[in-house]
Amino acid sequence: MSFRREAHVPKGGPDGGDGGRGGDIVMVCDDSYRDLEHFRRQSHFRARRGAHGQGSGRHGADGQALEIPVPPGTEILVEGDSSRHDLLRPGQRALVARGGSGGRGNRHFSSATHQSPRFAQRGLAGEEGWLTLALKLLADAGLVGLPNAGKSSLLARLTRAAPKVAAYPFTTLEPVLGTLHHDDRQLVIADIPGLIAGAAAGAGLGHDFLAHIERTRLLVHVLDLAPADGSDPVANFETVERELALYQERLATLPRILALSKADLVTSGQAESALERWRERLGETVPVLLTSAATRQGVDQLAVELLRRVPLNEPGAGRPGDGGGQRATTGEAALGELAEHRVFRPAPARAFRVARSGDGAYVVEGEGVQRLVARYDLSNEDALAHLERRLRGMGVIRALQEAGFAPGDDVEIAGVAFELDP
Ligand SMILES: Nc1nc2c(ncn2[C@@H]2O[C@H](COP(=O)(O)OP(=O)(O)OP(=O)(O)O)[C@@H](O)[C@H]2O)c(=O)[nH]1
Ligand SMILES: [Mg+2]
To answer: Is the pTM of this model over 0.85?
Structure first.
């Protein structure tokens, strides 16, 4: 609040400028980060407030936005909001909390009848809340199969990754990434823990890790030709496929390669006839290969199929160090789709509700009315008179009168009780 005061201007008018907006909080995808560890050190963030308005109609400066870095592949869920943000490519941003708007200076409130308003609006509080961050791997292809099928062994042959391999189920306890290099292409392959029946519903380790293959473009189903437990490969195949489909429609429709593993453990005649049967069963769209991590049989062929079937530079795209450069336009489109986030915001609520809360006391509820009241200092007579006019304009006074309100009764809005004397 300010009035123009100058020696040669005897009755200067109100000239208080508006306050600045509070700073927004923005999450920014930054490929110098690989994990979410930095949130262990700090998990509360506050953007800067806006500056106060000043005399001579000067606006206060807006508060600076606070940028919080997250690694590529971070999914952000905003508490109490249906919006979800996927930050995949460096530089992508997500506005997660808006700063509050600044209050208007008193120069806005002069009128023919109130030429020297001795009040200004207050700024409103900014948004606040909790975010849930989840880092999902960005791999081009995923290895799936029952525990012990030989997934990690294949990854170790295909790439330089050295995942733990052992002759018992659930050797792999968390996802391992390996990179297949070919000319100047790099293809990231994820090895996830084995899936068992019920994985989609949380059995075994599968459920937690299926999320990591959500963004792949292709799955290699690794199927043991001669399971040590004597189980039937056909039933095993179906178990895994069923869990993928139960987890997510998209996983069910991703392109597949079937890698029949441990071919060295059966005779070549048995291997060849199994190959024939699976080719017949799956048709032309699914390549079927005989592989052995022990003898390297089929490993190069699998690498060729992977490179052929994963579209060039697709989703790993946001991946750090993939050389950037030219990218298939379809890849961009697919990324755009993933990165798209929906933000649903209710329109400012005009609706309010009036209720009698006691003798000569009324309560008014409604978001719009509450925000309005938060704007003014109700112990300031000028501000109160202004608020009254606004409430009248919104139809609140009429609604109060219809409910039996008489001048001088108490009105409570947003927990603040005051006497209204319209
Ligand atoms: N003979 C033979 N044994 C293999 C081959 N591939 C894997 N194995 C063995 O099979 C066992 C399981 O292999 P892993 O690669 O750990 O299997 P996995 O699918 O990663 O298993 P989980 O991580 O438990 O899901 C190990 O004892 C491997 O040595 C193969 O091609 N030939
Ligand atoms: Mg493994």
So the answer is: no
